[in-house]
Design goal:
Pfam families: YbaB_DNA_bd (PF02575). The protein has two helices and three strands; from the N terminus they run H-E-E-E-H. The chain has 107 residues and is α+β, with helices and mostly antiparallel strands. Helix 1 runs antiparallel to helix 2.
């Protein structure tokens, strides 16, 4: 029994390490979203950190329109990044989880 517990603890540590490695790797996965016929471009990481926003000068004339485009593009980019993040984190967590009866939520 003690050997099983030790093995499970090691597996949990491995899972935690894989999750941390995945978080670090997701900082290098970039998600782009383009709006307003290419006049607005947003880039963020799969960890949902905004890296850049590029705005064409023609959008600067109408603040309300620009705000609308920014909101739409940011929400779409965040949604894409979240899907990538959740899928990658689930894989990382599942791959290192020990086989504990009743704990099959990651399958």
């Amino acid at each position: 029994m003690l050997g099983d517990l030790s093995g499970m603890m090691n597996k949990l540590k491995e899972a935690q390490q894989k999750v941390e490695e995945t978080k670090t790797r997701l900082n290098t996965v970039l998600v782009d979203e383009v709006a307003a016929d290419g006049k607005l471009k947003i880039t963020l990481t799969a960890n949902r950190e905004i890296k850049s926003i590029s705005i064409d000068d023609s959008l600067l004339a109408d603040a309300e329109e620009l705000e609308d485009y920014l909101i739409l593009a940011l929400n779409k980019a965040i949604e894409k990044a979240t899907k990538i993040n959740e899928a990658e984190m689930a894989v990382a967590a599942k791959s290192g989880m020990p086989n504990i009866p009743g704990m099959d939520m990651f399958k």
